[in-house]
Amino acid sequence: MKASKEKYIIICYSTSEMLNADRVIKSQGIHTDLVPTPIQYGSICSTSIAIAKEDRQLVENTLKENNLSFKEIHPYESRKLSGLMESLKKNIITHTFRDIMSKIEEDLDITKEEITYLLKTESKNEIEAIFQTADQMRKEIVGDVVEIRGAIEFSNHCKKNCNYCGIRRGCTVPKRYRMEEEEIMEVIHQLHSWGIKTVILQSGEDDYYTTEILVKLIRRIKRETKMMITLSIGERSFTDYETLREAGANNFLLKIETTNKDIFKFIHPDDDFDERLKCSKGLRQLGYVNGSGNMIGLPGQRPEDIAEDILFFKDMAIHMIGIGPFIPAKGTPFELYPQGSVEMTLRAVAITRLVCKNVFLPATTALASIDPDGQTKALQAGANTIMLISTPAKYRSNYQIYSNKNMIDLQSAFRAVKESGRKLPKYLKISPEEVQ
Fold first, then answer.
1. 257 appears as a binding residue in the annotation
2. Is 284 annotated as a binding residue?
3. Final residue of a domain: which of 120, 141, 162?
4. Do both 181 and 152 map to the same domain?
5. Exposed end of the chain (fewer CB within 10 Å): N or C?
6. 396: annotated binding-site residue?
7. What is the rounded distance in angstroms from the CA atom of residue 124 to the CA atom of residue 8?
8. What is the per-residue pLDDT across 16-54, written as a single tens digit (0 to 9) for each?
9. Could you give phi then psi for residue 376, rounded to 5 degrees?
10. Is 302 flagged in the annotation as binding?
11. pLDDT digits 0-9 by tens, 40-92
């Protein structure tokens, strides 16, 4: 599908109906894409089916013949960035940059080469225009409200040996820990009392927490709080993912970290890129609100690699994209490697907003860990989400995926929102004055 004007969007009543419709359409040899629903048609969290214009009638007939209901099917309407090219008129920019910005204004897809150009440009005017354009798109697509979520790092045990990670199997950490269900629920209820709508349950790849244990926890969270649940627990089987989804898990965060297979193998000596990709595709197939992300500044990484990552997020219809600088932990094989650049990380965030549009983009903790103003800068560059570190104090210092981790709390989140000129969500039941 070359341009948005050639697409039709099918909106279904539920995730299960959408997945069933997609399966039937594909069985007829018709190409489909699962994409985050354009904001004019629905929630940022929902997924729709994109088809080519010429397949519209065949698809509609196929759905009717199979008694599959759908809410809407209509042309994808372009979301043009009004006045973008006019605002660049007086800027000293190259013809190449002007052509790229023109395509972005017209809601046309940009290529890997064009993304790479945006990542590489050293022109102050062009860099400034990238950030301004991303901020304009963020405002027009997802608005001014910053989503606030709470993350609980419930275990720092991990069976994997990633070369940069401070909780890797071979790393000596201050103390390994696992949180009990009651401890997790105590934090859950605290977040719920603040009005937080989504909790992120994050851990190393720890087989102690079986699917049965996690299902019990998920069902209890749903029963007692009805909160949305994001899991970030690494690679599991398709059957496990399916069982957790049926239990009530809504979102899943599994970062690809890099789409360069050589770099992936270098940083993950006991991981397999194709297995990670298979897991991501399985999560999408099961209808999770799918999360991914990458690290900026990995050893050997080039701007072309980052461009591939951004296109991967788009092609995989990723809803939540966490982009942070590479920060190796002390005591790991990579501890002497240089950390990633704040500026390049911010630029990757901005360009991801321009390419992927209607997605959640966190102002990541990693960014805040190497720049005290990192989250404010990210919010001004297209980000729209902050994740609080809600792990109990007695465990926090032991969950060091990278060194010198910044512990994002309500106070720092409120500060970043205020400094970036953004708005807090109305669902919060706690005010900035209450956390001074």
1. yes
2. no
3. 141
4. yes
5. C
6. no
7. 38
8. 788 889 989 999 999 988 777 776 776 666 778 989 999
9. -60, -45
10. no
11. 776 666 778 989 999 999 999 999 999 998 888 888 776 778 788 888 887 88
